[in-house]
Amino acid sequence: MESIHPILKKLQFKDAGQPVLILGAPKSYEVVIEGFSGRVDTQISEEAYDFIQIFGTSNDEIRVLAKEAIKHVNDQGLVWLCYPKKSSKTYTESDCSRDTVAPLLADGGYEPVRQVAIDEDWSALRFRKVEQIKKMTRNFAYTEKGIERTNKRV
């Protein structure tokens, strides 16, 4: 049995050969993409996905791609928004940070629930619908439902 790529493990991907959607991935990510056993779509289709990963070097780019892509995520699907780290030597012009990417899907009812480092250039935030978050014990929220559950606003 082939082992799953360490980055896919970190992103909590359970490979069952299902199609996945990956938008805007850098060339350096090709080795990870090769680790998926199912079809990898690089453009949005009418498919419903269990795993969506979006890369962008600006908040606007991520926002535009993500708002369209989340229309195609399954109920329990994983949504990861990937952005350049502030320490990246490759993407020095990026306006992205955890604090600017975190609220990008609030209008769609999504809250950030986990952050991971992909490599020396990229970080990723995982998002879930507020209704699917069992416990919201954090000190902040971006969606109206999240604010109601935590009694805290960012």
Explained architecture:
The chain has 154 residues and is of the alpha/beta class. It has a single domain (6-150), classed as 3-Layer(aba) Sandwich (Rossmann fold), CATH 3.40.50.150. The chain is built from five helices and six strands. The protein has a six-stranded mixed sheet with strand order 2-1-3-4-6-5, covered by helices on one side. Helix 3 (59-69) links the parallel strand 3 (49-55) and strand 4 (73-84). It is globular, with a radius of gyration of 15 Å. The mean pLDDT is 90.
Q: What is the ordering of alpha helices and beta strands?
A: HEHEEHEHEEH
Percent range for helical residues?
Answer: 10-25%
- Gross morphology: globular
Alpha-carbon Rg, integer: 15 Å
Class based on secondary structure composition and strand pairing = alpha/beta
- Strand order within the widest sheet? 2-1-3-4-6-5
